[in-house]
Amino acid sequence: SGGIGGRDQDDGSFNGKPDVMAPGGDIEPDSVGAIAAGVAGAPYPVPSRVELVRAALAPGSGFDSDGDVPTNPRDHVSVGGTSMASPYTCGTAGLVAQAMEEDAPDSIALPAPDETGREGTLRLKQTVLATASETVFTAAPYHAAKNVPSTPQYTHGERDPYEGYGRVNPDAAVDAVSRNLLGTDPQLGDKTYEVSLEESVGTNIPVDSRAVAGYVDVPGGSLDVSVDFTSYTGGNQGLAAGAPHIDLFVYDAESPAANGEPNVVASDQGVRGSASVSVDVDRGSRGDPNERTFYVVAKIVNIPGVVNGYDVQANFDMDVNFDPADAFPPKEVNLDVSGSRADDASVFTAGQTNRVEITVDDFNDELADAVEVSDQVPDGWSVDENFGDVESFDEDGVVTFEGTASTSDVSGDGNKTFFYFAEAPDEGADDTGTYTFGPAEAEAVDPQTFDDPNRTQGSTSEEFGGTDTNTVAGASTNV
Question: Which of 32, 201, 288, 446 is the most exposed place for a label (fewest CB within 10 A)?
Answer without folding.
Answer: 288
